[in-house]
Specification:
The protein is of the alpha/beta class. It has two domains: about 190 residues, 3-Layer(aba) Sandwich (Lysozyme-like); about 100 residues, Orthogonal Bundle (Muramoyl-pentapeptide Carboxypeptidase, domain 1), CATH 1.10.101. The protein is about 30% helix and about 10% strand. It has nine helices and eight strands. The strands form two sheets. The protein has a six-stranded mixed beta sheet with strand order 1-4-3-5-2-6. It has a two-stranded antiparallel ribbon with strand order 7-8. The longest helix is centred in the C-terminal third of the chain and has 21 residues. The protein is elongated and about 60 Å long. The two termini are about 25 Å apart. Bound molecules: zinc ion. Zinc ion (ZN) binds next to loops.
Length: about 325
């Protein structure tokens, strides 16, 4: 599935076209913007859309921190692609714009909710592509990372064989130095698949995640999204699993098998209800998001990553 489950959507009016090969690289950008309005298309004034915009704010749950603009099966447009040389946007790359500044990579450190949200975003993308859970490059601080010939930047050959996560600062034919000295080891530190497992009596974000999904599916009704795995959550898990044809007798745990079953239901639901969901987001949820975002403030950066030169020239 090329659209991530649960997250906000603001579909781009254009894409970067088809990929030239399998998706094996994840590229991290920073927006360098002083404000971010996910509902405002003019923010992407040069139509340099990424696949996903991520808001590193510890106050936001995952579903609210992630906005998807382009399906993962087609190219985004946030990289420059000079004539000749290699493909950039179309080289099997998923691109994330983080609402942050290259000179301040503090969003990538520690273990706050923002970092945990980003780890999950990477894992969700990895599960739908062939991007491995690794990084083989050094993220250098900005502005030292700026320049077409900055020492961390890959050659065309290195780029075409790279597999894993990197930054705009590593992409050939580009001079931008974002996202700066991101703590990529910290972002890659957790096994997200396993962290989504939980059971009766557990409390936390994994439980909250399943409550949200089960609510979407109609199995978790009249109960709070409180992150507590109690009888109401267990009943909803059981009902959802049985809806897949399973004969399980208990909903007391989200195991790997239960996760696959519920994810399958959710994917079907999201496909069937995509339009309704978008309308729902734009009315009841989007206003809250925008109010939250307006409270956030970022210092203007000295490098503007957002108005990238449009990459698609033909
Ligand atoms: Zn960038």
């Amino acid at each position: 599935m090329s659209w991530l489950p649960g997250v906000q959507r603001n579909p781009a009016p254009v894409t970067g076209g088809s990929f030239v090969g399998p998706v094996t690289i994840g590229v991290i950008h920073t927006t360098e913007s002083s404000t971010f309005r996910p509902d405002d298309d003019s923010y992407f004034g040069h139509q340099s859309w990424p696949h996903v915009t991520f808001i590193p704010d510890d106050r936001l749950i995952y579903d609210d921190a992630v906005w998807q603009h382009i399906g993962l099966d087609v190219a985004a447009r946030a990289l420059q692609n000079r004539s000749g040389g290699v493909e950039t946007n179309r080289e099997g790359v998923v691109q994330i714009e983080v609402v942050a500044r290259a000179a301040d990579p503090s969003w990538s450190k520690g273990n706050g909710r923002g970092v945990r949200n980003f780890r999950r975003l990477m894992a969700e993308i990895e599960a739908r592509t062939r991007i491995p859970h690794r990084c083989g490059v050094e993220f250098r601080p900005y502005p030292q990372s700026y320049g077409l010939k900055a020492r961390q930047r890959m050659s065309g050959d290195q780029w075409e064989t790279y597999r894993g996560w990197c930054g705009h600062q590593h992409v050939p034919e580009n001079d931008h130095g974002d996202p700066g000295a991101v703590d990529i080891a910290n972002l890659l530190a957790i096994d997200l698949e396993a962290s989504m497992f939980c059971r009766l009596g557990d409390e936390g974000e994994a439980v909250e995640h399943w409550q949200l999904k089960l609510r979407d599916l109609g199995y978790y009704k009249n109960a709070d999204i409180d992150g507590k795995y109690g009888p109401a959550t267990a009943a909803a898990v059981l009902a959802a699993r049985r809806a897949t044809g399973s004969t399980v007798k208990s909903g007391d745990a989200i195991t790997a098998h239960a996760k696959r079953q519920i994810d399958l239901l959710w994917t079907r639901w999201a496909t069937d209800h995509a339009k309704a969901m978008q309308a729902h987001q734009r009315t009841t949820r989007q206003n809250e998001r925008i109010q939250a975002l307006e409270r956030m403030h970022y210092e203007p950066g000295s490098e503007n990553c957002v108005p990238h030169v449009p990459a698609i020239t033909s």
